[in-house]
Amino acid sequence: MAQLAHPFTTSRLVLRRPRLEDLDDLALIFEREDVCRYLYGEPRDRAETLAVLTSRVEKTESLEYDNVINVVIERREKSGVIGDFMLHWKEDDHHQGEIGGSLYPDFHGQGYATEIYEALLTLAFETYHLHRVVGRCDGRNTASIRSLEKSGLHEEAHLIENEFVKGEWTDEVIMAIRRSEWEDRRWRSSTAS
Asked: Is the CATH number 3.10.180.10 carried by domain 8-192?
């Protein structure tokens, strides 16, 4: 599995590899019903979060066919993990990836998710040379859809009641951006400055 070799910084955030010391913060995030509402799983207790965290910490740094880079998010000025995100892709001819994650609710509505997605897109396109990246959202998760849009993804599909999750049929919205679109977006923002 792939790992982030060095922390990746943005203007306000640090994306880095998870550490066992992150357990308290991650447990607070994933024990919450409102965080897990649109995820496949139910809220996790501390022991379940420790098991997930331990498996991520113990990953090797080699690239394999099926790669997932898990990162925790900290604010640059303050310690403490505020989110858990990922970039996933396969080493195949399609060069396609997926981004997603969860942010502690106290930090919603401040542009952090968009900033995180933009950083993950930079890794996807500049470091791993992917062709296309998607974000998949429960159709009711309008905040995540909006954050993906702000980071440059556009809706490619809205699948009606395509998944049965937590006892109910849900829609899935698939957002996407191709490398050429991302490069054009970056060029336009650099010339506008």
From this structure: no
